[in-house]
Amino acid sequence: MQLRNQTLLTFVGAAIALFILPLIVQPFGPGWVRIIDSALLYVLLALGLNIVVGYAGLLDLGYVAFYAVGAYLFALLASPHLTNQFPALKEYFPNGLHTSLWIAIPLGAFVAGVLGVLLGAPTLKLRGDYLAIVTLGFGEIIREIVTNLNKPINFTNGAQGLSDIDSARFFGSDLNKTKEIFGIEIPGVTQYYYMFLVLVLISVFICYRLERSRIGRAWMAIREDEVAAKAMGINTRNMKLLAFGMGATFGGVSGVMFATFQRFVSPESFALNESVMIVAMVVLGGMGHIPGVIVGALLLAALPETLRYVAGPLQEMSGGRLDASILRQLLISLAMIGIMLSRPRGLWPAPEHGRKGAPKGGQA
Amino acid sequence: MDTFIQQMINGLVLGSVYALIALGYTMVYGVINLINFAHGEVLMIGAVTAWTVVTALSGTGWPGWLLMLIALLAAMVVCAILNFVIEKLAYRPLRNAPRLAPLITAMGMSLLLQTLAMIIWKPSPKPFPILLDAHLYNIGGAVINTVQILILVVTVITLFGLMFLVNKTRIGRAMRATAENPKAAALMGVNPDTVISFTFVIGAVLAALAGVMYAANLGTVQHTMGFLPGLKAFTAAVFGGIGNLAGAMVGGVLIGVIEALAAGYMGVLTGGVIGSDYKDVTAFVVLILVLTLRPQGLLGERVADRA
Q1: Which end of chain B is more exposed for a tag (fewer CB within 10 A), N or C?
Q2: GO terms for CC (chain B) (predicted)?
């Protein structure tokens, strides 16, 4: 009973801390809350990729493609671009498309999920490194398409990207507008924080349930030994497709969120570096372990961002060679190498259940 | 028809560069099963080193071919040392770790090298001087210049040199033995560490060679220049059958030719819907098709199932 009370106490404590965190941070400036917001977005992405990489053991380097799909989907459905381009559409929607998030989120999840399954289908035979390289290629293909789909008909506006995307609206309330509740001013970034937090909590719950379900166990069996899993009667093909699809839905939703948060999307945001970074978050934190993945995402997303504020003096000292973005890249790359060398299983790996005698050098 | 011949020449030259890079990939993968994501960046370091040497010596009035040779040697030495150190520090400690770990360090290393190059050489692209006299030769209405001829010749010589090295020399036999089974090789008196170091050094020398050729043909150097050719060269290595030298060569040339033809004709064939802007995608489309239809590659044995 003592222990239960303690868990409950930590739980309630964490909930309160998460709830008031932005209120404490926001007096220091909206920039800091923005950093937390984007960190939460990365947590969402990392949780999705963790399903594919962590649970099912399929190394997916094209994950950012689903993120891009979600983001562009919302960008097209909630910005003036399409109605400006196609007069016929303008006749039906004279005020623009302004698709609601209630439609966009499930739609983004669905489209990305279907795409995930489509990508998974031809790669089922591959494992490990080969899968990594094929998914990487897929991610690049999507990015090239998005970059070049501005001619002959302009769908994506090419490298310039799409702007003027709607901010998030729920029940007639625009999250981008500052509100006052009980005398406390709540700016837009803080309201976005709560929206992202809700999504992250839902995702954690989904992942937690998945991990303990038959599906989750099947994934982990595939990760540990695919042949044995097959022999035990697991339909490895369907399970792998399901992993790709499930992971992709997270990417799609994160993309929608990204679009409504930034209100601008361009192909630049979906470069390969982004995919590598999300993989790094999952692997550095501890593959297949929800708290580990969250820690990895927060660490890689938030820490380098905060450096932007100390980068100024360093930039002067180095004669302009070391600017904030270069410093950020440097730190991320060093973290990737350093953490892997010191803790190849991640910072906070999943506890191994009775695998003491298991041989090292398992599968990817 | 002129366009066709011209695109074939462009494709062959580009393909030769890809082949040179692919040889490095395929040897490293063959010996320790690691996709060395940093290989393209080693190439880039070679190219910027060469650029530094050439610009430093440009006032001496030495002939272009001599400058080129010095730059090439410098690039090779720098890359060889770099790759030797990378292998020792970043990959060797992880040889028995879970398979994802070395892959992540390789990606981290690729990012690190790019960042360091950005800090040392600044992010802006720099023109690579024309060192060899830019004589144009006419072949059936198409043109080819001296650098491009040099690239073709160097690639062929390198391939045969490597084949000799791997198939006929003692260290080559040790490499093949380690690739086959490191433990058994060790029992037979081969030191796998030496062999792996040697493989990385050879790979780096090839990357330096490719980097300088690529820069000379392209006319610029930049910290991002290694990434895409690296990726395409890996595709080439897989296409040809990874671990197979001739396969890397064939794969490289084919990828280069496919890309050049796609750049020349895709827009015409699809009525402008899919323009030449998509040429960078062709390598990946080929990759996906190859891995789905013939995972062992054109000349390789079946390895895709090897986890």
Answers
A1: N
A2: plasma membrane
Partners of A186 in the β-ladder: A179
Q: What distance in Å separates the CA atoms of residue A259 and residue A339, rounded to the nearest whole number?
A: 32
Mean confidence (pLDDT) of chain A = 85
Q: What angle do CA B30, B33, B39 make, to 5 degrees?
A: 80
Domain ranges of chain A: 31-269
Cα nearest neighbour of B33 on chain A? A129
Looking at chain B from residue 241 to 270, which residues have their Cβ under 8 Å from any Cβ of chain A? Answer: none
Mutation target vs B (from A49, A141, A315; most B CBs, 10 A cutoff): A141
The runs of H, that is alpha helices, within A124-235 are 128-148, 188-212, 214-224, 226-231
Q: Is B306 helix (H, G, I), strand (E, B) or coil?
A: coil
| Cβ-Cβ contacts under 8 Å, B275 against chain A | 148, 151
**In A3-156, which ranges are E strands?**
none
Omega prior to A152 cis, within 30 of 0: yes
Sketch the domain layout of chain B as residue ranges.
Answer: 17-226
Q: Tell me if chain B has a CB within 8 Å of the CB of A337.
A: yes
Strand, helix or coil for residue B218: helix
What average pLDDT does range B140-145 have in this prediction? 82
Of A151, A326, A361, the CB nearest to B115: A326
Cα–Cα separations (whole angstroms), residue B126 to A189, B48, B51, B151, B160: 41, 9, 8, 21, 33
- CB distance B230 to B283 below 8 Å: no
Amino acid sitting at position B290: V
Q: For tokens 């079946």, what's the residue?
A: B302
User: What are the tokens at A336?
Assistant: 């990737």
Q: Would you call A326 and B295 a contact, using CB atoms and an 8 Å cutoff? A: no
Q: What is the pLDDT of residues B13-51, one digit of tens each?
A: 999 999 999 999 889 988 888 889 899 999 999 999 999
Q: Which tokens is B31 given?
A: 């010996």
CA A272 vs CA A100, A332, B170: distances in Å: 30, 14, 41
DSSP code per residue over A112-123: HHHHHHHHHHHH
